[in-house]
């Protein structure tokens, strides 16, 4: 967990001066073994950020920023997370207020970009939507940000004004507990330090991305005065219905700094919508990142926000002068009337703007939006650097019916909690693993397939896996569209009581449902947790029945989205099949899920489920053979047989669908998808400098290559070229480029080995960390395998020496933690005569035996 206590005697200044008038920060619980804070390892002071020639940082490293040296660079050397702070020992206010701008970035280049490596105006994520922020320094003492920053290696502090400021300490008060890979319960070390460093990537990523219950604090402060909301991606109510059309929104607001903002006619979780920002007549904080909006103005935009950010476009906003004076610290009643083609804004009953909405029509979107300029949800969020209070919200239909009210105050017991959950800005009620600590900060269940595996061999925090499985079942709705399916990307700031309101997102990446089967099976394989599955078995079987019903075509027996579309479901796609509505990879992934779930059912004694799932597995296996095998590789889908893909190759092997001949063919076909350092998702993807290479898809392939070699009759020469490419060329780019290095695995790369969405790339993505578990399971050689004789998963020690030897690895040692306590430690070494010396032992657990297959 975390902590963010205010040190007594020191005043925490957020983004505003009037500290005493602001609501208090929430109090946090502290986890015993959490680091208190993360301190920089290296620093420099100069006129611009620096990457080379930095000095060692110590607690006595006091620096002074002034006109001559205005930029402090702080290097934490690897991914850290928490609430940024500065300890100010001196400030020279003789030339007026002193303001500094902080920047946060995973890669170094973010420090040279105006907005650092952000912003991320897409999900609330319980962190600052922006990666830059300004502090107004009015006195000495500690300054701490209200918002946490979820993941970065770098921070800079730039003096924006005259005067000077002396800083004696800076860093992050920890929001997650990141332990160095070598100090974890699971370890890996080998004769080649590059392999060790690559193993560490997933081990660090899962620690940065998995968050303890309550550790990421709420984004709004609710008191008897109302909700105090700082400049942030607007959070919307989860209560919208399809009736919310042609309505009037009213609320009362008081500007503390800069301005106030609200969003209307948006998608159910914000996304595309109209954004209104009203500024006061008083200048807010200085900023080098974003030009402040004009004083006393109204800005109207449409999109995720009012600025362009990577992947998420916004229409160009309009800014209008407001013909009345808007003061800080004065309450105003704002009324916005939505008609079929206009948005009219009133302040205390004075019309200040009647905006023609039709120019924004081109920007309206069905996905992540209502698709309409007069319908959808609403929410609140002032713009960058602003802060305001909000209260007394009312939504009224055109016929006068009141559709919604909320005082946004804490006056009634429990009301504040309810409001925070309703707007998904509550401190995270469940322990979950995010896709990435910086973004998206959603609990994507598909990404979690890799995350769970890396946890099992490194941090050993199986409580996160249990919590994710429980979340999926407790959020699953038992009625309505998609009932008994599970959420593919739970929002972290709310709980199951609001799950159904967010259920509109059920489709999306529909094959993430299939990954959930694999998550359950692989968790069970490593833990034998019959208790958890006994508790949730009814839900698990209902989920499986729903998945079969919704996604398996009764005629072709392939996984398909046709039923979803036929039933009016929208927005569904197969992540693993490049958007095809029927595909080889999703079908094979489904088969892998069935095979694993069959094993759980077998152990639990549910023979009906086991029989029906294994029969379906066989039927779907035959269907893949019949309709997607080209004779030389598996096509992406029956209608796209000319294209081979990494995931069709990987999942047909992992599902046991591929034969000696077909696995050999599809692995060899991958050569046609090699682009410089790694494999494109498909042979049809362009050979361009900006083609994204995915460590997620290649991670599944990496394990599949070991599985093919171990379970099929194919020579090591079939799998080696791809294994060597992945382990020796592809993954090392994440460890050997200082300007990008975070010590954690990445989301994407470009073919030149740089991050694959530029500055926007998450460089803390567990989905890019498969080598962590593949190296532990196959190179160190500790893993579980199903034993048909005893109908149980059991531990084996079985290093794949032929591959290790081809990778020039001469020894490996390491430990895998056990969910039921203790661990398995093993080591092996190649002798000069070609034989191997090895050992394996279980410590701290009398119930677990390991079958030593090296003997
Ligand atoms: C910094 O110093 C330069 C001259 O060295 C001067 O022109 C400039 O105005 C100063 N800037 C500030 C913010 O004091
Ligand atoms: C008024 O409008 C709302 C929202 O469209 C609708 O649900 C309600 O039935 C209407 N009431 C009347 C009396 O027409
Ligand atoms: C910054 O602090 C100064 C006092 O040093 C104060 O006058 C000014 O209003 C503050 N600015 C903001 C935007 O809070
Ligand atoms: C502001 O302009 C609107 C028309 O756009 C007018 O109705 C209103 O009276 C004006 N308000 C003031 C205070 O002048
Ligand atoms: C606007 O209305 C609020 C009440 O809704 C009132 O408190 C405030 O004084 C009014 N402001 C002005 C400038 O009239
Ligand atoms: C497809 O099925 C046939 C007949 O069972 C079998 O001989 C062949 O090996 C299978 N091929 C693949 C690629 O699975
Ligand atoms: C394995 O493959 C080799 C070479 O293709 C073949 O000679 C051998 O018979 C196969 N073994 C089995 C058990 O199928
Ligand atoms: C260690 O592995 C890396 C990446 O595969 C390789 O480039 C390097 O040559 C290896 N070093 C040794 C000593 O084998
Ligand atoms: C699961 O339990 C069985 C028997 O209780 C045991 O033999 C086996 O080693 C266990 N497997 C794992 C992976 O813990």
Beta-strand portion reads 25-35%
Number of strands: 40
**CATH third-level topology of the largest domain:** Glycosyltransferase
| CATH C-level name of the largest domain | Mainly Alpha
Count of discrete structural domains: 4
**Are any ligands bound, and if so which?**
2-acetamido-2-deoxy-beta-D-glucopyranose
Structural classification: alpha+beta
Helix proportion of residues, in percent? 10-25%
Q: Determine the mean pLDDT.
A: 93
Sheet with most strands = 10 strands, antiparallel
User: What is the correct CATH architecture of the largest domain?
Assistant: Alpha/alpha barrel
Region (Disordered): 22-42
Domain Alpha-L-rhamnosidase six-hairpin glycosidase: 421-663
Keywords: Signal
Protein name: Alpha-L-rhamnosidase six-hairpin glycosidase domain-containing protein
What does this protein structure show overall?
With 855 residues, this protein is of the alpha+beta class. It folds into four domains: 211 residues, Exo-inulinase, domain 1 (Jelly Rolls, Sandwich); 145 residues, Jelly Rolls; 370 residues, Glycosyltransferase, CATH 1.50.10.10; 68 residues, no CATH class. Helix content is 24%, strand content 27%. It is built from 16 helices and 40 strands. Strands 1, 2, 3, 4, 5, 6, 7, 8, 9 and 10 form a ten-stranded antiparallel sheet that branches. Strands 13, 14, 16, 21, 22, 23, 25 and 26 form an eight-stranded antiparallel sheet that branches. A six-stranded antiparallel sheet has the order 15-24-17-18-19-20, with no helix packed on it. It is globular, with a radius of gyration of 27 Å. The N terminus is likely disordered. It binds 2-acetamido-2-deoxy-beta-D-glucopyranose (9 copies). This is Alpha-L-rhamnosidase six-hairpin glycosidase domain-containing protein. Keywords: Signal.
């Amino acid at each position: 967990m975390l902590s963010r206590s205010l040190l007594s005697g020191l005043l925490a200044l957020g983004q505003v001066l009037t500290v005493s008038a602001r609501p208090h920060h929430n109090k946090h619980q502290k986890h015993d073994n959490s680091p208190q804070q993360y301190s920089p390892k290296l620093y420099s002071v100069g006129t611009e950020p620096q990457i080379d020639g930095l000095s060692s940082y110590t607690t006595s490293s006091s620096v002074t920023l002034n006109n001559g040296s205005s930029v402090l660079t702080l290097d934490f050397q690897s991914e850290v997370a928490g609430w940024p702070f500065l300890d100010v020992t001196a400030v020279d206010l003789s030339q007026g207020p002193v303001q500094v701008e902080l920047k946060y970035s995973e890669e170094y280049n973010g420090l040279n970009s105006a907005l650092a490596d952000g912003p991320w105006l897409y999900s609330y994520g319980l962190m600052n939507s922006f990666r830059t922020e300004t502090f107004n320094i009015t006195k000495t003492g500690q300054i701490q940000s209200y918002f946490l920053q979820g993941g970065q290696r770098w921070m800079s502090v730039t003096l924006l004004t005259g005067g000077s400021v002396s800083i004696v300490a800076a860093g992050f008060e920890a929001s997650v507990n990141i332990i160095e890979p070598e100090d974890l319960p699971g370890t890996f070390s080998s004769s080649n330090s590059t392999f060790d460093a690559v193993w560490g990537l997933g081990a660090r990523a899962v620690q940065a991305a998995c968050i303890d219950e309550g550790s990421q604090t709420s984004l709004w402060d609710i008191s008897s005065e109302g909700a105090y909301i700082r400049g942030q991606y607007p959070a919307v109510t989860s209560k919208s219905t399809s009736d919310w059309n042609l309505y009037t929104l009213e609320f009362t607001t008081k500007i503390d700094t800069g301005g106030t903002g609200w969003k209307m006619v948006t998608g159910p979780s914000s996304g595309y919508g109209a954004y209104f920002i009203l500024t006061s007549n008083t200048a807010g904080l200085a900023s080098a990142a974003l030009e402040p909006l004009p004083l006393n103005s109204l800005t109207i935009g449409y999109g995720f926000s009012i600025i362009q950010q990577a992947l998420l476009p916004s229409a160009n906003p309009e800014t209008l002068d407001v013909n009345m004076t808007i003061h800080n610290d004065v309450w105003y009643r704002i009324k916005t009337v939505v008609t079929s083609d206009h948005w009219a804004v009133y302040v205390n009953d004075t019309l200040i703007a009647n905006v023609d909405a039709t120019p924004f029509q081109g920007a309206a979107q069905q996905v992540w939006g209502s698709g309409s300029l007069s319908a959808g949800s609403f929410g609140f969020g002032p713009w960058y650097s602003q802060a305001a209070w909000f209260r007394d919200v009312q939504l009224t239909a055109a016929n006068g019916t009141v559709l919604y009210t909320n005082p946004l105050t804490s006056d009634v017991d429990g009301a504040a909690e309810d409001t925070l959950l309703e707007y998904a800005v509550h401190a995270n009620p469940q322990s979950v693993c995010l896709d990435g600590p910086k973004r998206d900060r959603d609990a994507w269940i598909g990404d979690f397939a890799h995350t769970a595996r890396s946890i099992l061999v490194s941090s050993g925090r199986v409580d996160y896996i249990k919590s994710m499985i429980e979340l999926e079942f407790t959020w699953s709705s038992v009625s309505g569209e998609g009932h008994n399916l599970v959420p593919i990307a739970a929002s972290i700031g709310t709980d199951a009581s609001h799950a159904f309101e967010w259920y509109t997102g059920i489709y999306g990446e529909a094959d993430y449902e299939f990954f959930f089967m694999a998550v359950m099976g692989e968790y069970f394989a490593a833990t034998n947790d019959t208790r958890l599955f006994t508790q949730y078995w009814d839900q698990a079987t209902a989920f499986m029945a729903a998945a079969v019903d919704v996604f398996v075509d009764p005629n072709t027996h392939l996984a398909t989205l046709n039923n979803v579309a036929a039933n009016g479901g929208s927005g569904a796609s197969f992540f693993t099949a490049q958007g095809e509505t029927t595909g080889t990879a999703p079908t094979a992934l489904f088969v892998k899920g069935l095979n694993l779930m069959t094993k759980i059912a077998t152990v639990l004694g549910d023979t009906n489920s086991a029989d029906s799932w294994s029969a379906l597995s066989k039927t779907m296996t035959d269907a893949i053979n019949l309709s997607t095998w080209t004779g030389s590789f598996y096509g992406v889908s029956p209608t796209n047989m000319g294209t081979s893909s990494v995931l069709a190759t990987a999942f047909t092997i992992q599902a046991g669908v591929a034969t000696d001949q077909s696995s050999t063919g599809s692995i060899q076909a991958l050569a046609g998808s090699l682009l410089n350092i790694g494999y494109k998702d498909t042979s049809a993807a362009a050979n361009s400098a900006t083609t994204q290479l995915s460590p997620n898809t290649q991670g599944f392939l990496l394990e599949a290559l070991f599985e093919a070699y171990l379970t099929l009759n194919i020579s090591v020469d079939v799998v080696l070229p791809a294994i060597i490419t992945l382990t020796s060329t592809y993954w090392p780019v994440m460890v050997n480029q200082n300007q990008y290095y975070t010590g954690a695995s990445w989301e994407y790369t470009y073919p030149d080995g740089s991050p694959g969405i530029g500055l926007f790339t998450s460089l803390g993505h567990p989905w890019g960390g498969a080598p962590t578990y593949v190296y532990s399971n196959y190179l160190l050689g500790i893993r579980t395998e199903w034993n048909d004789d005893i109908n149980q998963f059991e531990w084996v020690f079985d290093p794949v020496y032929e591959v290790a030897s081809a990778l020039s690895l001469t020894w490996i040692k390491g430990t895998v933690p056990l969910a039921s306590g203790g661990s398995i430690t093993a080591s092996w070494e190649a002798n000069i005569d070609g034989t191997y010396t090895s050992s394996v032992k279980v410590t701290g657990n009398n119930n677990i035996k390991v079958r030593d297959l090296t003997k």
